[in-house]
Amino acid sequence: RIYPASSSGGGRDNAIDLGASGARFKDLYLSSGVYLGGTGAANKLDDFETGTWTPANSSNLVINSIVNARYTKVGDIVTVTAWLKTNPSSTVFVISGLPFSSLGRSTASLSDASNGITVPNQIVGNNIYGYAGSTSGTQNDFFISATYHV
């Protein structure tokens, strides 16, 4: 155990730094979590992950290319982003492949830059259901940004 103490051996709560701006530790490996800003369960960070995901067509959408499909998961909150070049064959479509299944229903910020509209949608499970009144066409640019609970 590394224990913050004074020269007389007594404990010093919230008074001693571990490292400094010019004398930093390189890596920190933990087998459990870290408490940030307090010792309550709500302050414990025990799950952090980043990666890529693969948006896929589940219904009425041809995906021609995918750019920067990434996610960050902190605890039970996931944020995903992606840019898709698509050919929707209908104004109702499903994008599948979210990296984690949502808890309940949520919404994404889903915009169709080609038509200058925001696409109404909902996230259910691992899917984004889009309900766009006028996005059928070729080479639509869809920008996705969503944050949801898992």
How would you describe this structure in keywords?
13 strands; elongated; about 150 residues; five-stranded antiparallel β-sheet; about 50% strand
Task: Please explain how this structure is put together.
With 150 residues, the protein is mainly beta. The chain has no helices and 13 strands. The protein has strands at 34-35, 44-45, 48-52, 56-59, 61-74, 77-88, 92-96, 105-106, 108-112, 117-118, 121-124, 127-131, 140-149. The strands form 3 sheets. It has a 6-stranded antiparallel beta sheet, with no helix packed on it. The chain is elongated, with a radius of gyration of 22 Å.
Q: How far apart are the termini? A: 34 Å
Number of strands: 13
Query: What would the principal axes of the Cα set say about the shape?
Result: elongated
| Helix-residue proportion | under 10%
Order of helices and strands: EEEEEEEEEEEEE
Q: If helices are DSSP runs of H or I spanning 4 or more residues, what is the number of helices?
A: 0
Low-pLDDT stretches are none
How would you write the strand order of the largest sheet?
3-5-6-13-9-10
Strand content: over 45%
Main structural class: mainly beta
